[in-house]
Structures are given as C-alpha cells and as structure tokens.
Design brief:
alpha+beta; Rossmann fold; Methionyl-trna Synthetase, domain 2; four-stranded antiparallel β-sheet; three-stranded parallel β-sheet; 10 helices; 12 strands; nucleotide-binding; methionine-tRNA ligase activity
C-alpha cells in the first residue's frame, strides 16, 4: 500500500515503461506469465449481454489488469462449434453445420470486436489442430487403459433412420416430471439424464416415437482415476483457491462415486474417432470441447505447449 501511495504521489513518470507487445506472446523465463481463457461461447446463436457479462467481459478486465501490471499475458477464446445444438440449428436454418458455424463465428467475432474485447486470438474448434490434439489425447488414454467399450442403449428414430443424440430427444423428466426435458439434462431440476430414461420420448425432428436400440460406444473409465483425483483435490482444496460452490458440487460427484462416462456419439458432425469399429462415430462434445482451449492456442502459435505444458512458468 505504501508503495502504491508513493507511485500515485509521483505521478505517471514513476511508472515502469509499458511492455512492448510481442507476436506471438510466449512465456518468458523469469517473468510472470499469465494465460487467460474465458468460456467458449456456443456458436449456434447471436451472442447476447449474458455471454459478454458472464465470462468474456470479466476475463477481458483481468487481461487488461495483467497487462497494466506488465505481466506477460496471453488471452485466448473462440467459438465452440461441434455438438448436436449446432446440428439442430443448422436444420432449422436450412444450412449445413459448417455453413452455420462459419456464419455465426463471424457474427461472434464482430460483436466482440465492437465491444473492444482484447483477445490476443479469437479462434474456433472446427480446425485441423482440434482434430489432431483431441485424437492424440484419445490415443494416450487408450494406450494407458483408461478407456473401455460397452453397449449402450440409445434411442433410434426409424422414420429419420438415425440414432438420436441427446438434444434430438425431448420428453418427461423421470425425476421431477418436467414435460420438456432434454435427452441429456432436465432444465428444471438440473439432473443429468440418459435419454432412454425419459418418459414419453419424442424425436425432435419428426415428433415420432423413437425405439431403444443397442449400440457400441467408448467410455472414459473414471472409476479407475477416482483415487488419483481425490488425492489431487485434497491438495488443491487445501490451497484455498476453490469456491464453496465448486467444492460442494465436486464432493457430491465423489460421494456418489464416479461412473464411466461415454465419450462417443452416433453422429457425423464432430471430431472423428480414430479407432476401427468406431470410425462412423464422433467424440461427444463434452470430451471434445474443453480441448478447444488447447487447439485455439495451437492455432495462434505452434509453440502452444509452452503455455499448456509449462507449470514452472
């Protein structure tokens, strides 16, 4: 506080010279290096004030603060473009998923430019880098025995002749009775749902009644990781950096025991699964989308690993 008062009294001349911008921004030995991301906005709609206020503006404020402190700062973001919400919107607008993503990515970029959001790079998840990194992480999980195969019952619409991803199904929530629950989550009670558990399910495309059909999928073997995860959580919780809400939700998941989590879907719009017997499937967006932070950085600089695999700096 005394130092701040002293500099304030001496005026702008007492400030250190501003950092000269480098392109690309890379970690510097011996300096404070700050990597900032904000939640990737979903591409299937025009962004609204909630998108700005909820994540982008606060991240931008922090990025500006870090730069004023002369910290070496990289701020990246981009549009999240895979998943069934994109397919649904593309069908509504009579476009291919790629055409829809191209249209709305440009809209998002223009809006954030208008708001003067200070991204160093604003990218997207439908890129060759996303495919390469996601498939590499998948292959590493496979080689280390953290994946398993299992049969999953999935709703299939015979009229549309396709398996229905979670968001292509609507019905009554089996937990609270809400009549407009999606096939992945109930927006009223917040519980995660397996689409086959819905009562009175309907195909969102044709309003027909889908039938339960078995299909092979790949799962992330989360129970195998539970012990390591708990030990890591205890260490990080002790550091005091987690909010009470985040701790509560995580403890609830661990209390109930982690379950294997499906990471593939019977779709065509997504990152292809590079494994024989599953090449007609894509990665589930909840496996794929978080990798977007890495791939967007990789599209900014081919030295992206200096940011993401560099805990000492």
């Amino acid at each position: 506080i005394a130092a701040a008062v002293d500099i304030w009294a001496r005026g702008p001349a007492a400030l250190p010279p501003p950092r000269q911008p480098r392109t690309p921004v890379l970690p510097v030995e011996g300096e404070r290096n700050v990597l900032i991301t904000s939640a990737l906005p979903y591409v299937n709609n025009v962004p609204h004030l909630g998108n700005i206020i909820g994540c982008v503006l606060s991240a931008d404020t922090f990025a500006r603060y870090c730069r004023l402190r002369n910290w070496n700062t990289l701020f990246v973001c981009g549009t999240d473009e895979y998943g069934t919400a994109t397919e649904t919107r593309a069908l509504e607008e009579g476009l291919s998923p790629q055409e829809l993503c191209d249209r709305y990515h440009a809209v998002h970029a223009d809006v954030y430019t208008w708001f003067c959001i200070s991204f160093d790079h604003f990218g997207r998840t439908t890129t060759p880098q996303q495919t390469r990194i996601a498939q590499d992480i998948f292959q590493r999980l496979l080689a280390r025995g953290f994946l398993l195969q299992d049969t999953m019952e999935q709703l299939r619409c015979e009229s549309c002749r396709r398996y229905l991803a979670d968001r292509f199904v609507e019905g009554t929530c089996p937990f609270c009775g809400y009549a407009e629950a999606r096939g992945d989550q109930c927006d009223k009670c917040g519980k995660l749902i397996n689409a086959v558990e819905l009562k009175n399910p309907q195909c969102k495309l044709c309003r027909g009644t889908p039938v339960v059909t078995p299909t092979q999928h790949l799962f992330l073997d989360l129970p195998k990781l539970e012990g390591q995860l708990e030990a890591w959580l205890e260490r990080t919780w002790a550091a005091g950096d987690w909010t009470a809400n985040a701790r509560h939700i995580t403890r609830t998941w661990l209390r109930d025991g982690l379950k294997p989590r499906c990471i593939t879907r019977d779709l065509t719009w997504g990152t292809p699964v590079p494994l024989d017997g599953f090449r007609d499937k894509v990665f589930y967006v909840w496996f794929d989308a978080p990798i977007g932070y890495l791939s967007i950085t990789a599209n900014y600089t081919d030295q992206w690993e200096r940011w993401w695999k560099n805990p000492q700096q």
